[in-house]
Write a structure and sequence with these properties.
Length: 316
């Protein structure tokens, strides 16, 4: 007898394995609910595909252990036929590999075929930072266009922190009042609950102090540093919406988002001679290759300047 899982039927042993895997991802890997939901959806699609691929019979663990490389490739081909780009197919394959590695480690099944699959080629887009001039313009104007002055001060403090320390928006909004960057360093908990230490520029601490001085709410030490107009934790969507409004007023590109301030932090450091590995540590990147994209961006920008400025380049 089959049991419902993720909106369709599955063999009981698969249902049990998936339940344990999802709990493991929550407790051991401490993945966010959004990430776990993405994994869950990817596996649901794969099992639905297998059910149809097998003539309507939901697979059990023995069936999963006997899958051949050609079976996995058939699934990837179906994703491609459905219009999924390489990045989406690569993410779904990563979800599947994650599950099969866990199944192997937990002793439930072993399937070496999935390790033989090539990851779909993904051309990662280069970061799209703001120029130094546009960043300065944005930060200087970020407290404007607000009916309540303290909200403008809050926005400026938040955006200055994102740019001055290279934080993700989630990291900045996750700070508690006791963690306010008012000294020379800031300890941040990033992805995977990994901590990193970041130097704090005077411009950042000054902006945060100015916000705290006019904030109308009492901020308890363990409460959020950045709050909304009702005193609750500021939501990322609010900061993103305000940045969209400001970029329209300042005629900035659509790529001017809170995350672009983090890109700008890294790009401007690299352009000024910053060491790539030091920037990796500041950003909290697990892999140097992720940080190296900023080198690719710098090279692309240099080539663009060359093509537009060199006399021979202009002549073709």
């Amino acid at each position: 007898m089959t049991q419902p899982v993720l909106g369709f039927s599955a063999q009981p042993d698969v249902q049990d394995a998936l339940d344990h895997w999802l709990r493991w991802m929550e407790s051991e890997r401490t993945l966010s609910p959004h990430t776990r939901a993405a994994y869950r959806a990817d596996l649901a699609e794969f099992l639905v595909f297998l059910t149809g691929y097998r003539g309507g019979q939901p697979p059990g663990l023995n069936d999963l252990s006997e899958l051949k490389a050609g079976d996995f490739r058939a699934w990837l081909s179906r994703l491609s036929m459905d219009g999924l780009i390489g990045a989406s197919r690569a993410r779904k394959l990563a979800s599947l590999r994650n599950l099969f590695r866990w199944l192997d480690r937990s002793g439930r099944l072993h399937n070496p075929a999935i390790a033989s699959l090539a990851t779909p080629k993904v051309k990662r887009p280069l970061p799209r930072p703001l120029t130094v001039i546009d960043t300065d313009r944005f930060l200087s104007e970020s407290e404007q266009e607000r009916e309540e002055p303290w909200v403008g001060q809050r926005d400026r403090a938040l955006y200055t922190l994102l740019y001055g320390c290279g934080l993700r928006i989630s990291e900045a909004l996750g700070l508690a009042r006791k963690d306010a960057p008012l000294s020379d360093t800031l300890r941040v908990t990033g992805k995977g609950r990994k901590e990193r230490m970041i130097p704090v520029l005077p411009a950042v601490s000054d902006a945060v102090r100015a916000y705290l001085a006019v904030c109308p709410f009492t901020l308890p030490p363990d409460g959020p540093l950045f709050v909304g107009v009702r005193g609750g934790r500021l939501q990322a969507s609010v900061a993103q919406l305000q940045m969209r409004k400001l970029r329209a007023l300042l005629n900035l590109p659509d790529s001017a988002t809170p995350h672009a301030l983090r890109h700008s932090f890294a790009t401007h450091l690299l352009a000024d001679g910053g060491d790539l590995r030091a920037i990796q540590d500041l950003l909290g990147h697990a892999s140097l290759s992720t940080t190296a994209r900023y080198t690719d961006l710098e090279n692309e920008q240099l080539m663009s300047v060359y093509r537009s400025a060199h006399p021979r380049a202009r002549k073709g």
